[in-house]
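Morning run. Coffee first, then this:
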Amino acid sequence: MNDKKIAKSEVMQHLKEYNDKEIFYQQYASLYNDKEALKHFLEQHDPARLIKERIYIEEILPKSFEAFNGEESVWESLETDIYIEKYCRLMPHLSAIHDFFEIVYVVDNNMQIEIGDNTLITLQPGDVCFISPGILHTPYVMEETIALQMTVRKSTFRKEFYRCLAGNSVTSDFFLNALYSQNGGSVLLFHMDSDDEIKNMFLQMYQENHNRYAGYQNVMNNLFEILLCYLLRCDPSEIEIKQDCQKADTRMTQILQYIENNCERITIADLSQKFHLTKTYLSKYITHKTGKSFRSILQEIRLEKARSMLCSSNLLIEDISEAVGYHNVEHFIRLFKQRYHKTPNQFRKDK
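And here it is:
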């Protein structure tokens, strides 16, 4: 792979040039109908290396979507949040389901994404497409298409950008459903008509991810937060939601936001008093809307907050445990290990 650094003025030219992955796909496509030649071509490539380099073809993938699903298919370490690369031209039309957000930005020409079994979305230049976790999708990238694919952890929206989403019903409902709902599989479209500010932010994030200078992840996180703020300014006529979108539930949105903002001390009794609902009704309501119990959601939020504090501070484990609402540090360590397969101390050493 070419590790040469690129300047801001070179980004567009770099995107137009064929990279190593696209050259592989081009060769693969030219041999696809000649089984003997294709077999000989593939014998020259180590399947494990192809997977590591994120080159996907049906011959080396299991007959399920699991190879694409987990965060480990994108991130090698837990302290990074965002990854962005060019959508490869001539890549095979393979379906995927992810456990993270995928954002597609079309720089030039069109591309299509099939959602579910038969909903086909055509993206124009300037369109920004958020694909929620857990939704089946198949990209169709034409040879003349220039598009960027960004992947973002679910926890990133809780840890860094959650405050940006409050107060915008369409956008906040989309992300809250995607994070917590059992029926949240939707696609959120922003038709930006090649807005220069949006385009420049995507190109700068691509440049940062490619060059990987010191602190590049912090720069990308900050740019992404600004990107969300810009998108929240969009006129409702520029926003579109596709597939399985639940009717906006303002009360559920407010409940989830309140849990998020008060996770270190909130109880179901506090929540029922705040929203003037009985504890029994509120518990059933949360489970019905999200597919998760109040306790499960609270634990998920607390442990994500603890993960963030381990990455960004030198606080003692006991202090972090207390800060996120666990007064018994042994209980906190046990829960953390169940979720991340490492103790907090091991996680901090490995980050």
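The two ends are 25 Å apart (CA to CA). Good start to the day.
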